[in-house]
């Protein structure tokens, strides 16, 4: 009986320690989807939180999975300093735009092309927090920006406001002209 109690306590303690270990993992935060115009530059934002202070062993890996689901391609690597890819589609087209002290490990992709459509992953390890979530950003490169409902709403409100100002101005001008014409008639009537 005593062995079972000890074993049960050990199992409960082990489950609690495992939960604490998982809670101590690095959490990575990214936008889920980004839309950018062909030929422009786009910042892919990635931030992280860790239960441990930022260490010298902190590493960041950015990878790319094309829409055709071909193999992953390395995009960028950081360990004490940024390392650009020596080859591949992002060679000379990616720069570091992060700030480790602010838990920001973002990059900028230059001169976006339709072939850049796909999913970018951002993975951060901060020893001893080596496990955690992997951030994913789906990038869609479009030929031109489509107007969203909010753009249409803004244009409609702006147009209505301008139209209202024109109508109010016209009413004020008409009233002033009528008043001047009436005053002129009264002066003529007084002189007669």
UniProtKB/TrEMBL annotation:
Bilayer-spanning residue ranges: 150-174
Signal peptide (UniProt feature, chain positions): 1-25
UniProt protein name: MPZL2 protein
Similarity comment: Belongs to the myelin P0 protein family.
Subcellular location: Membrane
Positions of the Ig-like domain: 24-140
UniProt xrefs under PANTHER family: MYELIN P0 RELATED, MYELIN PROTEIN ZERO-LIKE PROTEIN 2
Provenance organism: Cnemophilus loriae (Loria's bird-of-paradise)
One of the protein's GO biological processes: cell-cell adhesion
